[in-house]
Amino acid sequence: MAGRTQPTYFNAADHTVISYRDADASVERPISADLATIPFEDAPPARSVPSWKGKNVYEGDYWAATTRGFVHHESFLEREYLMAADFDPSILAFCWQPFVLKWPKGTKGHRGHVPDYFCRIDNGDGLVVDVKRPDKVEANAQQFAMTREVCEQVGWKYEVFTGLPEPRLSNITFLCGFRQDRYSPGAENVAALIDAFTPGTSLEAGVRRAVRATGRPRPVVHGNVLHLLWHGVLAVDLDAPLDLSSFVAVATAVAA
C-alpha cells in the first residue's frame, strides 16, 4: 500500500456518495442499487495505513486461504474477523477498506466513514463489515446506523463484528494454523481420511484409522485432518473445547 494517498472526506452534495478507486482513478458516485454489481471484493484500499514514531504496531497482513492472498488488518480484532471470514464457507472473497462513504454536507459530527471490510457471499450479495470492540459500539452507533442505511439502499448486508465467543475463538485460531497447503493430504489421500471418519468418531480414533489406511506418520495425518476441518470437509462442534475426544464427522455437504 505504499504510495497510496489518504482520501478526502469532504462532500459538497446534499446526499451520501461513495468514493473508490477504479483502474487507478478516483471515482465518486451517489448511492444506488447499481453499486451492487461492482466487484468491490477486488478493489484496492481506499486509504493507506498511517505511521508515526512510537506507534504501537498491531497491523499486518493475513494470508487468506479463501482468496489465496494477503488481506490487511489494523488491529488484533480485525485479524480475528479475517480468521472468521476465512473459515466461513459462505464468504467467497473479502478485502480491506475498498471505499469511503461521504455523508451529506452539513451532517453534524460525521464527515465520512471507511467500513473495514467488504465481502462477497455465496448467493452473490455483498456484505459490509465494521469491526469494533464491544465497549466502542455505543459511541459509534449513529455511524453504524448510517452505514446500514446505505447498505440497505444498495442491497448489501451489513454487520458489526465485535469478536468471537469462547471456545469458538480458540478453536478457530488453532485450526487456522493448518489452513495452508503444506498440511493438505493431497487428492490421493482425501478419500481415506473421509472413510476414517465415516461414521463419525473421536478425533483420536479417526486419526488412528487414517494412519492405518494411509501408512503415513501420525503427526502428518493429524495435520491433514485438521486441514480438512479448517476447509469444511470434516466437521466438529466448535462451540465446545476441541481436543482428541471431540466428535468429528464428514461435513453434510461432502457426505451429500
Task: Note down, in words, how this protein is organized.
The chain is built from seven helices and twelve strands. With 256 residues, it is α+β, with helices and mostly antiparallel strands. A four-stranded mixed beta sheet has the order 5-7-8-9, sandwiched between helices. α1 crosses α3, α4 packs across α5 and α5 packs across α6. The protein is elongated. The protein starts with 16 loop residues before the first strand and ends with a helix. The mean pLDDT is 92.
Question: Features of this protein?
Answer:
3-stranded antiparallel β-sheet; 256 residues; alpha+beta; single chain
Secondary structure layout:
Elements: E1 17-22, E2 25-30, E3 60-64, E4 69-73, H1 76-87, E5 91-96, E6 99-102, E7 117-121, E8 126-131, H2 141-154, E9 157-161, H3 168-176, H4 187-196, E10 201-202, H5 203-214, H6 218-230, E11 234-236, E12 247-250, H7 252-255
Parallel strand pairs: 8-9
Antiparallel strand pairs: 1-2, 1-6, 3-4, 5-7, 7-8, 10-12, 11-12
Helix pairs in contact: 1-3, 4-5, 5-6
